[in-house]
Amino acid sequence: MTRPLRLAVLALASALVLAACGSSGSSGTSSTISAPAATSATSSARPASVVATKTSSLGTFLVDAKGRALYLWDADHGSMSTCSCACAQAWPPLTTAGMPKAGGKVEASLLGTTTRSNGSREVTYAGHPLYYYAGDSAAGQTSGQGSDSFGSPWWVVSPAGKAIQN
Prior knowledge:
Elements: H1 3-20, E1 50-56, E2 59-63, E3 71-73, H2 86-90, E4 95-96, E5 101-102, E6 111-115, E7 121-125, E8 128-129, E9 154-157, E10 163-164
Parallel strand pairs: 1-5
Antiparallel strand pairs: 1-2, 3-9, 4-7, 6-7, 7-8, 9-10
């Protein structure tokens, strides 16, 4: 294969990968959960863990089993996740392979999942897809609170399933 042809094939393949990286779809509300590494740009599903709560100056909000803050995004409508590609690298979705368990002040009946466009199952709470913020490097950090990255605000989530807008 000649060099110009190889470059053209590589450019085409890159364009196809970028074109395939669209917004995520959703369906259903059965339950599941997992947590990515603290700085992971992607999240890999693992057996269910506990979605719990933490209290700070922001109030009481949702965290994963390791104490990492969980966020909702104002741009999502219903349980449909619209954060993908670069957005999902900065705001990795909380994904799962098993049934989530409620800890702290979390209401088990509000836990569910939605199916992302890549087929992974993202945890929802009160119908909101849940995300981490890649900039939070330790348990209890809420550096993403109020960020308007990707065109809409991000908020930690109250046990009632509402955005905490402090």
